[in-house]
Amino acid sequence: MQSGTNDPLSGASLADAHPFGLAEKLDRWGGEELILRRDGPTGAWIVIALHSSVMGPPTGGTRFKPYPDLDAAIADALRLSEGMTHKYAVAGFPRGGGKAVIHAPIPLDPAARAGLLRRYGSVLSRLGGTFQTGPDVGTSSEDMDVIGENGAPWVFARTPAAGGAGSSGPYTALGVFAGIRAACTHVFGGEGLRGRTVLVQGAGSVGERLITLLRSAGASVCFSDVDPECARRIREQEAVPLVEPEAVYGTACDVFAPCALGAVLNERTIPLLSCRLVAGGANNQLAGEADGTRLHERGILYVPDYAVNIGGAMAITGIEAMGWTPSEAERRVVESVERAVGRLLELVEREGVLPEVAARSLARERLAAASA
Predict the structure, then answer these.
(1) Which of 285, 288, 302 is nearest to 201 (CA)?
(2) Distance (Å, rounded) from C-alpha 175 to C-alpha 337?
(3) Number of DSSP helices (H) and strands (E) in the chain, helices first
(4) What is the distance between the alpha carbons of residues 369 and 277, in angstroms, rounded to a whole number?
């Protein structure tokens, strides 16, 4: 998909970009295609990673943020796209793993940002459904409206006014809630969430709704957020205790639910945890492979993020591309997540493996069946 000389979005070969170690990254990634486009007017890079089309068209969010460099942006896209493949496969949902990141190294004014998003939409249009997308970190339903001006119908979660299903956050929260409830029933017995203390880290579109759902199920909830205004609003609206960000990892709870940034479970934070279970909506919560072992050695059950945070991607895709009603989408999200978590925890007990190993095993099983 090479662009003409007058096209503000220029095609780029891997040699043109030449990020350090890219060949090694691609070998480890094992995906199908990496697409790089440089936006002439803004200098931003568009990176689209198509990891797998085995179960369906590669689908994943579009992340918009400044990275340290292009190499970091590519690494994030590769990692996230592989995570989407596992997420869909564990749930048995007919989509493949993909992800896009837009690396804008300098702040853009609203007009320049909108222009970049429209040109990105043109890239999606040329791909003709090879990659389908929705919101992610740094993008919103309103941004999907702009991208969709040129990129429809391959852009999901646009606002209702633009013909979309709106924010995916509430559906993601519902899936995380269902996963926490299923894991609590497995660990603590029939009472499930009632009387359990859950610490929610991050009160954005997912975390805020998750707090409401947990409280309605009888859980005792506390939360943390780095945004003082958001923290004040949630504390007043939900009447739940606020935990200062620096005290999060040492706060005693039954369930720790990371719903903000990834890589929060690492060699520094895991020794501080005082919980029995970790399950949340943030992507890539483990900083490295060794951190799963660290949690296990501390007797903490970790439910991999992609087993529980599929709700938004599943529901919005189901509503906009598969004809589901919102109530059907909610039902399917809850059933799918509960089934996936149940199978995962059974495999953990039966095989004596780490949860992330069990999750990858389930994903491989589904991918192999789809390939056959």
Answers:
(1) 285
(2) 6
(3) 13, 11
(4) 31
**Burial zone of 191 (CB within 10 Å; 0-12 exposed, 13-18 middle, 19+ buried):** exposed
Please enumerate in sequence order all residues whose Cβ is within 8 A of that of 50, keeping only pairs 6 or more positions apart, or say none. Answer: 31, 32, 33, 34, 35, 58, 81, 96, 97, 98, 130, 131
Closest by CA position to 283, among listed 314, 309, 257, 316: 309
Q: In what order do the strands lie in the sheet with 9-11?
A: 9-11, 33-39, 45-50, 96-103, 58-65, 132-135
CA distance 149 to 281: 30
> What amino acid positions are annotated as catalytic residues?
99
Rounded to the nearest 10 degrees, the angle between the axes of helix 169-188 and helix 311-322 is 130
55-91 pLDDT per residue, tens: 999 999 999 999 999 999 999 999 999 999 999 999 9
SS3 call for 332: helix
- Cβ atoms of 19 and 70 within 8 Å: the answer is yes
The answer to whether residue 370 scores a pLDDT higher than 90 is yes
Is there a contact between 226 and 204 (Cβ–Cβ < 8 Å)? no
Query: Smallest Cα–Cα separation from 127: which of 73, 65, 71, 49?
Result: 49
Is the CA virtual torsion 228, 232, 238, 242 positive or negative?
positive
Q: In what order do the strands lie in the sheet with 255-258?
A: 220-224, 197-201, 255-258, 277-278, 301-302
Q: From CA 206, how far away is CA 211, in angstroms rounded? A: 9
Write the pLDDT tens digit of every residue in 187-197: 998 778 999 99
**Do the Cβ atoms of 101 and 47 come closer than 8 Å?**
yes
For the chain, the straight-line distance linking the first and the last C-alpha, in angstroms and rounded, comes to 30
